[in-house]
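Write out this protein's structure.
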Amino acid sequence: MLVIYVRHHINPGQFDQALSRIVGNTDAMAGMPGFVFRHTGTPPGSKAEIITVTAWRSPTDKAAWDEKRKASPPPGDPKVLYAKVETYELATSDDRWMPAIAAALKSAK
């Protein structure tokens, strides 16, 4: 599994637009093969950052998402919305819980 942590540093006055862009990406990701989950949050009381944690079944699944996003970028200019975006990727080696997650996702549909 591939887990991606992204810390979006929001430009002043752009929080709502940045959050809207991120929520739109989350909605689009949800229909992609290999999407496991995405959590979005902010530090308490802050509108200066939005943090997302996203999991994909494999790097190949994430690459398919990257290609789809390049072909149809979400609205909003990232240069206007974000002062900086930090991305960290973690390839996990312990997938023991994946069958339980897969079953939960299947029953939720």
